[in-house]
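Data availability (excerpt). The following record was deposited with the supplementary files.
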Amino acid sequence: MSTPCKFEFSVLRQDEQEIVRDTHHPAIAEINRERLEDLRSMLRDLGSKERTLARHRRRQTKGKAEPRGKSFSGTAVHANQRNQVFVAAIKRVNKELKRLRKFEARKELGEAARRALALRRAQQFSRPQNEPRSHDGMRSLPSRRRHMKIPRSKIGRISQANKRAQAKRDASRGGG
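Predicted structure:
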């Protein structure tokens, strides 16, 4: 389930709000690929820091760890909420990077198809290189079909045999 932007910004500090704000819809579409990858690495660092802090807070409440310091405020729940905000932002960035990769791949595929079509058309409509020579005339191209000589006595023999066999069957059935 997604969380509202208002809740996300209420949990984060000012500098973190600016980072997360760039991952929401209108702003994320205008960011280039390098900036998106930088955002993803920053969000991963922030998320891992919050995950470590939440784990430490849980251990602290169980009595298994010493307090970390006075500068860390909040509970493990607060750190978990902040981590969830960073995870959601990473998902948005990954989705946008995937969309950009698909768009670039589709663009490259279209360009390759246009190049292939241009090559095919150039090859298809090219004229053969004829070298005109005096007194030779046109060159004859021999036929590639096989030449078979069939005696005239064998033409139609299969159909005649079928006709005789059918007449024989009709006579044996008593038809007439």
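Summary of structural features: The helical segments are 5-11, 14-21, 25-28, 33-62, 76-124, 157-173.
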